[in-house]
Amino acid sequence: MTPASSDRRTAWPPWSADAAPADLARYVVPHAVRMHARIPGPSDAPVLQRLRVIWDRLRQAGIGYAHEPVDSGPDGQWIRPPAEVLVAPRNGTCLDLAVLLAGAFRHAGLRTAVVVLDAAEPGRPGHALVAVAPAGTWPAGLPGEGVWSAPPRELPDEVQTGLDGPPRSMLVLDPNGISHPVGVAGPGTDTDLATAAATGYAQLTSNAYRWRVGVPADPDVTPYTPAALPAVLPLRDPYREPGTAESALRLLRAEFQVTPFQSRDELTVLSGLCEDTVRGPHTTIAVITGRGGSGKTRLGLELVDRTARAGWYAGVLREKAGTGRSWEWLAEVTAPLLVLVDYADARAGSTIDLLRVVARRPRPAVVVLTAREREGEWLTRITDALESDAHPHRLENIELPDAHPRPEDLFLHTCAAVRQGPHAGPPRLPDPDRGTRWTSLDLVLLGWLAARGQDTLPVTSAALYDEVLRHERRYWNTTFEHRTGTPLRFTGLIAEAAACLTLLTPAPHRAAEALTAVARLAEADDLRQQIADTLVTCMDPGPGEYVAIRPDPVGDHHLLTTLEQRPDLLERCLRVGSLLDEDDLGEGLRSALTVLTRAGRNDEPAAAAHIEALLRSEPGRWPLAATVAAALGGAARTVLEELAAASDTPLPLDDVSAALPFGAASLWRLALIVDERRLEDGRAGGAEPDELGELLFLASRRRDDAGDRSGALEAIEEAVPLYSDLALLDPGLHLPNLAGAFNDLATHRGATGDRYGAVDAAESAVRLQRRLVAELGPEHEESLARSLNTLATSRAATDDRAGALSAADEAVRIHRNLVRTATPQGLRDAYVSDLAVSLGNLSHCRSAMEDREGARAAGEEAVTLRRGLLSGQTDDTAADLAHALNNVSGHRSAAGDDAAALEAAVESTALYRHLVVLNRAVFTEELAASLNNLSVCRSRTGDSEAALEDAEEATALYRALAADDADVFAADLAMSLNTLGNRRAETGDRHGAVAAAGEAVDLYRGLFDEDQDVYVLDLAGALGNLSAGRAADGDTGGALEAAEEAARLCRHASDTKGGAFAAETARALNTLSLRRSDAGDQTGALAVAREAVAIRRQLASAEPGAFTRELAISLNNLAHRLWLVGDRPGAAKAGEEAVASYRRLAAVNRAAVLPDLAAAVNNLSVLVGEAGDRERALILDEEAIGLFRELAGINGDAWNPGLAGALNNRSVKLTEAGDHERASEAAEASVALYRELATVNREGFLPDLAMAVNNLARCRYESENLPEALSAAQEAVALYREAVTERGDAFTADLARALNNQSAVRADTEDHQGALDSAEEAVRLYRASMAAHPTALVPDLCKALNNVSSARLALRDRGGALEAVREAAELLRALVLAEPAFAFDLAVTLGTLASALYLTQDFEGALAAGQEGVELLRDLAGDDPASFTPELAVATWALAELLMIRSPAEASAVWEASADAVPEGHGRAEVRAGAADWYASRGEGPAAAEDLVRAAELAHREDDLAPAYLTRRVRQQIRTVALSFEPPPSGLPEWAVSPVPDADLELIRSWRAAPDWPDAETVLRARADVVTGSTVAVGVDIHVMLRPDDDSLRQLRELVCAVERQGLEAVLAERRERHAVEELVRAWMDQPTREQWLGYLETHREHLCADAAAEVLAASTAPSAGEHAAVAALARTMSMQTVAGLVTHAATAADHALEALERADPARLRLLTDANPAALDEPGAGFVLRAALDLDQGDLESAVQEMRAGAAVATPIQRRARAVNLARWAARAAPDHVAAINTLIDVLGDPSDQE
Fold first, then answer.
1. Does 82 map to a domain?
2. In CA terms, which of 124, 281, 1181, 1199 is 20 to 30 Å from 1514?
3. pTM score > 0.85 for this model?
4. What would the DSSP string read from start to end of 1440-1485?
């Protein structure tokens, strides 16, 4: 029989298949099934008919399917009795359903049995079936001992395969068919009898299961007795139909579920607790707390609803009715149990009774309690009862934040849910007025109003509540009339009654008695009862609730409005309230004070008058008033302050002082008033020294709390001598006071700028505290730790970083030990607060020592501790949390986690904004610092406009502070100006940036003169910003001067501090590199650029998150520097590395990195273009323009200059590629943008406009549009002349360049004299500018001299021409000695010089110049063949021509030497091809053929080092030369010599020129005979070899092959269909906004979700192709509404992705995050998704790193929720993944638990 177990009942125990399998028959109770289901009894009706009736009726019973547990537990499996399956919770597992069916069949007189199967695969759930013997006998008779332990041999042949199969002796049914899915769909649910029979047979004979046991339902077995179902169930359903609610305030209550539940992590945590409870031995009690309107009840109801759908008996506890059986039944329920007790703080007794019932259950349960706060007697009573009853339990606390995490969603979902008619468009959530913040309640009420068609929504809470109350009062009056049959005579009377009830909050049955406080109702008993009944009905208080207008904010507002009209109501209410029993009231006087204070926010004088009257009439009420004042401020605080200052104060000042703690953010003014008055009275009364010292100490602290630093210092300086004298007389008594006074003295000296005096005082304090610990014991360790903290802060202020770190470390160690050993919770909390302070201090000290990881760890721990202490968010704890958040934000930013840094900065600033309202003197400085930090964080995440606003506000606050106390706040003002300068620069305000940076430098110089060690880096940083600002403003010299000084300061600091300032030094060197380059010192620029990269590479290796971005910046700069010195491969390599780094960073935080990525891609396009890869350069140009367009779309003012620059760059590349039409288009677009910018800020953008116009002139010139080119060139010159006139020499060199360009254009228009004039003016300007920059302009001067030479030649002045080019050569020759990068310029100029010398008959001079130029080019081509072999071939040709005059052998030798100078490969092939061409031009066929064959052999082989464009160039040149022979030389490859028929050639050309498929198809149709011809394949193959980088040729080759196989028409039809799909996809991807492309997807859903579109997207290289492919894939299985939600909301996508994670579906997870990549950055969730994706790729190390980084910034509730998600994943994952997933779960451990 049933084995012994932990079950305390015997009526319905768990069933053990191992110990007592035959007992399964005892759970078959036909009479119990009949009690709850209308099923037929025994009859003569056919068996099949009876089966169908029973099946259909049970299927209609609404039974939910509960998933089968894999493991039944040590005591066996719990089987739900029929009442639970059919009534409550009305669900069951397959075994429950099988037993239920067996009972029903037994009742109908049928032979039946239950068959239990095990899963063949370990770890999978088993199954249960129900068997019926239609003939009334089993094939082999009844089994021995009532159990078939193995399937009877006859079984397979005796079971029907289905109802329509041949009749046999047994029918086996799948019982799941009578159930319905309630959560995740169950297998085989909701089927007819025929399907159940077929499924049952299939499962019985399947290899997926194996027989466990079969048990016939023997009527002779004594059944178990199930518990009787109570008449009234103890739990009610969580939700009601909205139609039963008649008013807004009722309709929008949580129980009506009008607004769909918005996902939140607290629900995940609670559901995870439920899952843990089922597996554990304890009852779980979850306490959900939060202010009114925060969503406690809705969260609890949603938990109930979801657990009920998962098979639990879950509901809301009804009010207990006497001693009935209702609650007792909960002890008998076999299903998992969850009970929600709402407003548990008012139902402590009921909760205790409930828990005593729950304690008798054999299975654990979950009890969820909701309350406004944990504090108070109610929870203590419950926990005391649990301990007294020895009830094993687990207590969990869940505190909800005030604001909803998704306000817009909440508003819109409410509106959509309540909306009664169609709307033209979604309503807009109104921005609240300044000082108003929408709560969750406000959002729901606003949604309700919007749904009712109200066009203009309120923008203040008061207006919102007035509007809602207007509807509510109409409802009250209507209800009164319906109840009484007569309208209410005085319409304001019921509103006054509602205010009275809201103030007194009586129990419902005492409402009429409470209304005697309303004068007009005091004697009107009948009317009073009618109004009381009406309001109780309308307000509908829940079980255990008191009567009041709910939610509280609406009720408070109504009360104040009423008291304004009926001021006598307050005293009347309190008098009546004093007569009521305490249990019949809510919070009594405190409630009245709270309501008045909250309501007084809209009219403080009126509320204050009421509160003052209450306190003057009874002063003993002051502690309660102070409690309310501390929590809410407002009128209660104002009244206390005024009464404390009054000469006739009724307040006991000594008691008030003792009750007010230091740092009381909300009551600081009251404390200051009280203790200043006590000090004044003490002095006047001749207080003793110890008493006066105590009063001075208190006054000092109070003044400091008030922000009066000087006053605080003055008081403590007076106190210290008093305590010193007293300590000499009685050390034991007064030494602690003296040590404390020294500690405060150190703090106040530091705060007023006396840094070294602060160190002296702090060291004295520490010395005394050590003495006290040694002499009096460890009770003084707390004070020692506090003094060490002060010492650490003081030492850090004097730049004694090592000393500061030592003191901070010791303080943390002491505080950790104090926390560890503290026993009372209150004392432990105090020590935890001190530990948080120490950790914050330690984080600063570690950061100063470059230990960023350690700094962040300490800062994060401090935040975690602060959050743990934050209860009800008091002002004091809020200030501590704000400080910790601001601190950790900086550390997160330093570690590269910009999103988390911004999150902390936003929260910190919001807290300080609240605190500054309470205490402007103290918290203005903190708010300014937080705003400054917020500005930096927003800038790093790409929000430059908001960042500028924050910086401007911070600077304004610091200016005001510095105006009052310059000594204290000068450094802060300088710091904020530095930030402001950066923000102005980012938004395009160049002058403003320089002004702010200059002011910051001036302030820091003054501070540096006073204390160099402390301010050296601040000054260096300000100089760096000033340098950048001056450079942007065109002041090259000033910029270089500031950068050099900054670098010198940083080097000095780093050298003297042992390299501790490496990051700052690298930053200064990077800036210096830019400035030196601007000034023409390319070698010096390169040297410091290399040094900066080396430093940052080392830093990034140690801390990738913190320094990868900085390394990318330095690499981008190094690429520029290398390019300028001629190292093109090195430049490209550095540029590629920079772009790769930015791409990785952008994948994590696109907004923050996008500007850097755009600039780096633009830079790389220049580098690869200069290296000869023009096609890739153009691709990169397109990308850069796209990136800048994206940025400009966000902030045109800031990024249109970048877009204009990228367009200008593209025009240069297109010009070089010969695409003059598109080049001109890009140049025109660039000019147009710069014209717009110059219209707004002509001075700032005039030089840029001139540059763009100058480039436009070049584009027109290259396209041979000479008139327009000349016009643009003249405009560019005029613009630069204007710039020079306005801003001096900064743009003289640019004017010279424009003149040089103008000279070239004039020369081509045959205006040679004009060309000469322009070139000579350019030369003069360059010479003048070179006085300031001797080497920077040499290359440009030489270009101008070359133009002068050309113009003089045109004017037949050969001597003048030679003079000019010779000067250019000499200048470049000297420059190359210092700057080898200009060797190429020298080589080109030497070629020009050789020509000029030859024309003047100086053959030897010409030969020498030509040889020198060739030697230079050989060296260059040897290092970089792709870039320089064409120029080497040209120069060698010219030299060979000169040598032919003297010796043909020398001419041949010069070609050999040039070829040998280039490494073997395609570069050497190009030189050989040049030689062949030269020989051919001279008619030397054999020599030409020999070199051509050698060139072809080299070019035919693969050359891994040769870029594709070099291969293309040399092969085409070889073919051109080869085809010039008649016949071509032998020994050449086919691609070099085989003729391509003209028809084939025309096909290939036309195909390549076709812009799209329709044109391509036209080409193919027009040349159908060619496409299907026998020669085209060879011709295409030749062109593939000649153009290896042309994908269109490969596509043509594939098409030709397909035509050979399928025929032309079939291929064209196929490609036409694909093109249609491509066009559809392209049009979809080109939609400018998400809303538009979602609409496009909905319109074309059928085609975009087809396989063809998926193939196109998979093949696309477009950046957004992956995202579109994922969205299309999701749209196949999801509604468009769901797809739109997850695509447009990262949080929604993250929710879906977490669900996929829990289902162990990584493919779905990846699809969802591809559809909305922002989900991977969703705070608190994205890091787990990234880690899961890493783990799915087998990269556990990266997954763990992601988890660690994410866990460090996640809130505790987020970490707990993610642990639940991962645990669910582990439960469903493959066994070999479980260990890795558990590793990720371990990383989520709470940092507060770590040492």
1. yes
2. 1181
3. no
4. HHHHHHH-HHHHHHHHHHHHHTSPTTHHHHHHHHHHHHHHHHTT-H
Backbone angles phi, psi at 115, to 5 degrees: -115, 125
Q: Which residues pair with 285 in a beta bridge?
A: 367, 395
Chain center to CA of 1130: 36
State the first-to-last Cα distance of the chain, in angstroms, to the nearest integer: 53
Task: Mark whether 138 and 250 lie in a shared domain.
Answer: no
Same-domain pairing of 635 and 489: yes
Calculate what percentage of the chain has a pLDDT beyond 90: 44
SS (H, E, C) 347-362: CHHHHHHHHHHHCCCC
Co-location of 419 and 341 in the same domain? no
How confident is the model over 106-151, as pLDDT tens digits? Answer: 999 999 999 999 999 887 889 999 999 998 888 878 888 889 999 9
DSSP per residue over 123-141, as a string?
TS--EEEEEEETTSS-TT-
Q: Where are the beta strands (DSSP E) in 430-527?
A: none
Of 51-60, 149-158, 285-294, 890-899, the range with the highest mean pLDDT is: 51-60
Burial bucket for residue 475 (CB in 10 Å: 0-12, 13-18, 19+) = middle
Task: Answer for the pair 1513, 1497: CB distance below 8 angstroms, yes or no.
Answer: no
Sheet of 127-133: strands edge to edge? 171-173, 127-133, 111-119, 209-216
Virtual CA dihedral for 1660, 1663, 1669, 1670, nearest 10 degrees? 150
pLDDT tens-digit profile of 557-571? 898 889 888 888 988
Q: Please tell me the distance from the alpha carbon of residue 297 to that of residue 316, in angstroms, as a whole number.
A: 10
Listed residue (37, 359, 15, 23) closest to 229, CA to CA: 37
- The burial of 642, by beta-carbon neighbours within 10 Å (0-12 exposed, 13-18 middle, 19 or more buried), is given as middle
Are residues 108 and 124 located together in one domain of the fold? yes
The CATH number of the domain where 1466 resides is what?
1.25.40
Of the three residues 972, 1000, 1018, the one that is the final residue of a domain is 972
* Boundary of a domain, candidates 359, 378, 402: 402
**Number of domains composing the chain:** 7
Token duo for residue 1278 = 């005029």
CATH code for the domain in which residue 260 is found: 3.40.50.300
List the domain range (segments joined by +) for residue 436: 404-459
Instruction: Look at 1174 and 1699; give whichever has higher pLDDT.
Output: 1699
pLDDT of residue 592 exceeding 80, the answer is: no
Is residue 619 reached through a cis peptide bond, with omega within 30 degrees of 0 on the bond before it?
Answer: no
Q: Is residue 704 part of a domain?
A: no
Checking 1683-1690 for CB contacts under 8 A at 24+ apart, the result is 1683/1638, 1683/1641, 1683/1715, 1684/1638, 1686/1712, 1686/1715, 1686/1716, 1686/1719, 1687/1634, 1687/1638, 1687/1715, 1687/1716, 1688/1634, 1688/1635, 1688/1638, 1689/406, 1689/409, 1689/1716, 1690/1716, 1690/1718, 1690/1719, 1690/1721, 1690/1722
Residue written as tokens 């969580």? 238
Q: What are phi and psi of 368, to 5 degrees?
A: -110, 125
CB 1177 within 8 A of CB 1213: yes
* Pair (413, 382) in one structural domain: no
pLDDT reading at 3 higher than 50: no
The phi and psi torsions of 371 (rounded to 5 degrees) equal -160, 160
Q: Are 1494 and 1468 in contact (CB under 8 A)?
A: no
Residues 535, 599: one domain?
yes
Distance CA 3, CA 290 (A): 47
Q: Are residues 292 and 370 in the same domain?
A: yes
Cα 1006 to chain centroid, rounded = 41
Q: Residue 996: which of 1032, 1026, 1033 has the closest Cα?
A: 1026
| Range among 349-358, 965-974, 1056-1065 with highest mean pLDDT value | 349-358
392 lies in the same domain as 424: no
The full length of the chain comes to 1795
Residue 550 belongs to some domain of the structure: yes
* Residue 672 located in a structural domain: no
Nearest to 1436 by CA among 1447, 1448, 1452: 1452
Q: Using the 8-state DSSP alphabet, how is residue 257 labeled?
A: -
